[in-house]
Amino acid sequence: MTRPTQTDTALVAYLALLTSREPAGGLLEIRYRQPDSPGRMRQHWHPAAHPRGAAREILELAERTDVYVGVAPRRHRHGGRSAIQRSWMLWADLDQTDTAAHMATLAVAPGVVVASGTAGHHHLYWPLAQPLSGPEVERANRVLARALHADTGAVLNAATILRPPGTRNFKHTPATAVTLERFEPRAHTAAQILKGLPTDPDTPTRTAAARVSTPDVLLAIEPERYVQAITGLQVPRSRKVSCPFHQDRNPSLHVYPQAAQGWACFGCGRGGSIYDLAGELWQLHTRGPEFVELRNRLRDLLLPNTTTPRHESAPTGRG
Ligand SMILES: [Zn+2]
Question: Which domains can be identified in the chain, with CATH numbers?
Answer without folding.
Answer: 3-193 (3.30.70.1790), 206-307 (3.90.580)
